[in-house]
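Dissemination and training. As part of the outreach component of the grant, students in the summer workshop were shown how a complex can be specified as a set of sequence lines and then modelled as a single object. The example used during the hands-on session is reproduced here so that future cohorts can follow it. Participants entered these lines:
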Amino acid sequence: MGSTTANIPSWFGVAASASLVLIAVAISWRERLGLGREVAIAAGRAFVQLAAVGALLLIVFERGGLPAAFGWLGLMVVTAGFVAGGRASGIPQARTHAWWGIGVAVAATMGLLLVLGVIDATPRVVIPVGGMVVSTAMVTSGLALQRTADVVRDQRASIEARLALGLSSRDAFLQPYRTAVRTALVPSVDTTKVVGLISLPGAMTGLILAGVDPWDAIRYQIVVMYMLLGAAFMSAVLSARLAQRSLFDDAERLVRW
Amino acid sequence: MPHTVGPAPELFTLDAVSFVVHDRVVLDDVSDHIHEGHATAIVGASGSGKTTLLRMLNRLEEPTSGVILFRGVPLPELDVRELRRRVGMVSQRSTMLTGRVDDEVRVGREELTDGDVDGLLEQVALGHIERERAPADLSGGEQQRLALARALAVGPEVLLLDEPTSALDQTAAASVDAVVGRLVDAGLSVVLVSHDLRRAAALTDDALVLDHGRLVDRGDPSDVTYLGGG
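and obtained this result:
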């Protein structure tokens, strides 16, 4: 896929670009922003993290094959679940809901793309494409759980008023659930609407830099946008539904936090 | 099974009911009865456990120990949604759940006809209100009466009222009390939670007095001893 003769910066080029970090540090020092040390550490961290990921990817691409690629995806899902579940203070077992939401969204999205032959079943494709799906699913799952916690806090009285009228917990929670899921999904829908108008998205940028024709690059980007939409909806709805189930006990009572 | 009528004429039987939350004893070994066809007051100062006790009667709360029976059947043995349809509730500040007066009446029972809705609104002295008005725009007293209509729509055998007038001014409170008084006169069983014994006495003929979670007196509202607030 694409040519490997693209104009990639050499290690000398990388060292030269560090001059821009020096400029940032100098600005911080001159303006007394107190960020110099932090900028230097951040730049150093970025170098070490990316070098480590690059080396690992190299090993996976050359030796690990598909099993290693899916293992890598699995690790990303676990990490993403920790992050997304941590956002929802008050919801019981929030991390489990996030893991399921993200895991199912990633499995379904990647599974569909692979089965339909839309993307190649090689580590070189599965890892970066899967990474985009995981990060989108993480954001929407986290938002859905966080908004669910918010609506329970804000609307406890109206949820209980519905329960007291004999409604099931599912019916009593329908409006708060919809509010939570909709607000969680608005950023994904908006991003899809303005794609290409405000910024050139990552996949397309990468392909163009790698020397692929823009007309070919957009095909990849369209697939990416569609798959991210699907993943966002799956992870938000599943996480919020699981959260709802953990918020009510056997006697259709909203749990106490 | 839901319609089992026990040998006792009691609507609710409280048997050694206690409630502890975060190591705080909210209700301490309360045992008594609430009778069918009566208006019963549960009075006590704030923090006496009266609202918790009321919320246990439709299982919005569960006793830590002890058991509550409805018509002789332990509450956990009844289907909880069926129980909540038979035991209606109106809280201190009713939250309006919909955008229209008639939708509000139908929340618990969608299939009501327009005629049913009219009848219920008449019953709570809201016959004059336009059906398409937003419940949130009504006055506090009108909202409480609409909440009563919403609860009555489901066809409850008993109505639980949690200080339904404490957030209202005198005139609005009187309008709600008048509606409740008519329901009681018509034979509906009512359990009214209040911190104000005198106000409760005007509407009820039986009273349980709670103090720091303990049942300290029981009897005619004009005879019981209540030293609490309000």
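The two ends of chain A are 52 Å apart (CA to CA). Students were then asked to discuss how this feature might be tested experimentally.
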